[in-house]
Amino acid sequence: MSKVGVASLQMMCEAGCEVVMAPKMGPLPAKELEAALPGFDAILASVDQFKHEVLLSPNAKKLKLISRWGVGYDSVDIPTATAQGIVVAYVPGLLNNAVADYAFSLLCSIARRVHSGHLLMTQGVWKQEWGHDIFGKTLGIVG
Q1: Cis peptide before 27 (omega within 30 of 0)
Q2: Collapsing DSSP states into helix, strand and coil, what is residue 2?
């Protein structure tokens, strides 16, 4: 089990919040998302699409907070949420280390041509694909 969010979950429980875990991971289609909303004051969401129709549905009338646990909040219709009095938040920096690990892993796999080796192996072909040495190289990141 991932440790991300465990401390926050514990804090909410200790503060007397009733925490309900989603029966399945999102993103949920609009109809399923809308059906899951009744009775909730706050939602900790992935990339579920909180669009105009969902936020205006009777099922969202009690909703006061939508907090995205990832990067950004572009999956939430901010003007509609604001008009409904729903605060929208996100957790900047939450996945910085994971994204950096993944980006570096991709750089290493490209340099070593892991993708080519994988493709050949799935086709039943054995051919050595060494790629390029990374050791001693300097990496520059622009952007």
Answers
A1: yes
A2: coil
Helix boundaries (H) for the chain: 6-14, 30-36, 52-56, 78-83, 96-111, 114-122
What does the CA dihedral 131, 98, 137, 126 come to, rounded to 10 degrees? -10
CATH superfamily assigned to domain 6-90: NAD(P)-binding Rossmann-like Domain (3.40.50.720)
Structure-block tokens of residue 94: 């939450």
- Which pTM was predicted? 0.69
Contacts of 63 (CB under 8 A, 6+ apart): 37, 40, 41, 42, 43, 55, 84, 86
The neighbour count for residue 117, using CB atoms within 10 Å, is 18
- Mean pLDDT, the chain, rounded, equals 89
Does the CA dihedral 55-58-64-68 come out positive or negative? negative
Domain residue ranges of the chain, discontinuous segments joined by +: 6-90, 95-143
How much is the pLDDT for 1? Answer: 42
What 8-state DSSP symbol labels residue 21?
Answer: -
